[in-house]
């Protein structure tokens, strides 16, 4: 297990001893949110509607509950050479695990039945994960940072991993609780909640010059050992096609040239955006819709949630799917089918 700062908190339901409880701390009123929603620009109401409001946003009660009744989660997808999928991995930014539970979020996992289920933005200290999060047939792994109510990631696994690690072994990043890695026989699964550059871009330099650099190195080091499947809320719309209104968002968090370049740098290091590999010209393929201005109903969204794999796994790729109609968060789940 990589080194962690004293404030990092982890929990593995198979090993309760690794949970490090800490008292909840009240957020200072003057302290800006870690991943604040971008501010309204001088261009007015329309541009506010188009912004990426992602980050540690309030889990509003108006978000519809999860209702998967009548949805078909089956797939007959195959690799290019005709091999049927045998591994399914899903990922979802749930925007607060307590709110997600209150909307019957676990019903989606039971219906989708992935081999691995990754969650981001759990917003809950691992010592306070609700008992209702337990799902029969899965082992859960949790990581939270040192700021109560922000960030946090989780992972459910059907098959017990060879090893589970928390963070990327860089303390300035790991105290925010953003990465869990599970090692399996043939590959690694990494789930990540990438830092948002924030309102007015106060964290842009940190995000692009520090986090992106260190995270790419971490993934490359893993890839040198065995192939990597990385997923999560990466807080970037890489291409113009990946958001509704690219022209008015070039200075907003998630679509700055620096953030987009950071994602390009990752791909140039031997990784592949699975969705764009399979659907290079698919429009309106969004995974996030800001709460305000009725954006989801108007499908004014962003593609912020990804499955990125080692290039040598592309031959094993069967499908990469966006579950656009699954409610319960300001993001929807994404699903990867592989033959491994």
Q: Give the strand order, joined by hyphens, for the main sheet.
A: 1-4-5-3-2-13-12
Separation of the first and last Cα atoms: 25 Å
- What can be said about the biggest beta sheet? 7 strands, mixed
N to C succession of SSEs: EHEHHEEEEHEEHEHEHEEE
Low-confidence stretches: 1-6, 14-50
Helix percentage range: 10-25%
What structural category arises from helix and sheet content? alpha+beta
Summed over residues and divided by their number, the pLDDT gives a mean of 88
Tally of alpha and pi helices: 7
Task: Label the overall shape.
Answer: globular
**What's the count of strands?**
13
Bin the strand percentage: 15-25%
What does this structure look like?
With 340 residues, the protein is an alpha+beta fold. It is built from seven helices and 13 strands. It has helices at 45-50, 97-102, 106-112, 171-174, 204-223, 257-268, 274-278; strands spanning 9-12, 87-93, 116-120, 139-144, 153-157, 163-166, 179-183, 188-193, 228-233, 271-273, 305-310, 317-322, 334-338. The strands form two sheets. It has a seven-stranded mixed β-sheet with strand order 1-4-5-3-2-13-12. It has a six-stranded mixed β-sheet with strand order 6-7-8-9-11-10. A hairpin with an 8-residue loop joins β4 (139-144) and β5. α5 (204-223) runs parallel beside α6.
């Amino acid at each position: 297990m990589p080194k962690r700062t004293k404030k990092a908190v982890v929990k593995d339901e198979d090993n309760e001893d690794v949970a490090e409880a800490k008292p909840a701390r009240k957020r200072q009123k003057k302290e800006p949110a870690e991943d604040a929603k971008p501010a309204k620009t001088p261009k007015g109401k329309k541009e506010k509607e188009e912004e990426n409001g992602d980050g540690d946003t309030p889990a509003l009660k108006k978000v519809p509950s999860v209702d998967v009744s009548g949805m078909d989660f089956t797939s007959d997808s195959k690799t290019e050479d005709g091999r049927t999928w045998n591994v399914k991995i899903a990922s979802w930014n749930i925007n607060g695990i307590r709110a997600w539970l209150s909307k019957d979020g676990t019903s989606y996992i039971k219906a989708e039945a992935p081999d691995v289920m990754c969650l981001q933005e759990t917003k809950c200290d691992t010592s306070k994960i609700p008992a209702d999060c337990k799902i029969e047939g899965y082992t859960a792994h949790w990581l939270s940072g040192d700021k109560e109510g922000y960030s946090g990631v989780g992972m459910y696994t059907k098959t017990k991993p060879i090893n589970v690690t928390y963070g990327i072994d860089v303390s300035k990043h790991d105290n925010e609780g953003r990465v869990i890695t599970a090692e399996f026989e043939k590959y690694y699964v990494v789930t990540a909640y990438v830092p948002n550059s924030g309102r007015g871009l106060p964290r842009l330099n940190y995000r692009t010059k520090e986090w992106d650099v260190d995270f790419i190195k971490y993934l490359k080091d893993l890839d040198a050992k065995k192939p990597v499947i990385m997923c999560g809320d990466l807080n970037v719309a890489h291409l113009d096609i990946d958001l509704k209104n690219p022209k008015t968002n070039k200075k907003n968090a998630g679509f700055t040239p620096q953030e987009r370049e950071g994602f390009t740098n990752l791909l140039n290091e031997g990784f592949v955006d699975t969705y764009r590999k399979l659907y290079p010209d698919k429009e309106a393929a969004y995974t996030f819709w800001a709460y305000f201005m009725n954006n989801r109903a108007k499908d004014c969204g962003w593609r912020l949630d990804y499955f990125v794999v080692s290039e040598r796994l592309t031959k094993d790729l069967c499908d990469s799917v966006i579950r656009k109609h699954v409610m319960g968060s300001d993001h929807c789940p994404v699903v990867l089918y592989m033959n491994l």
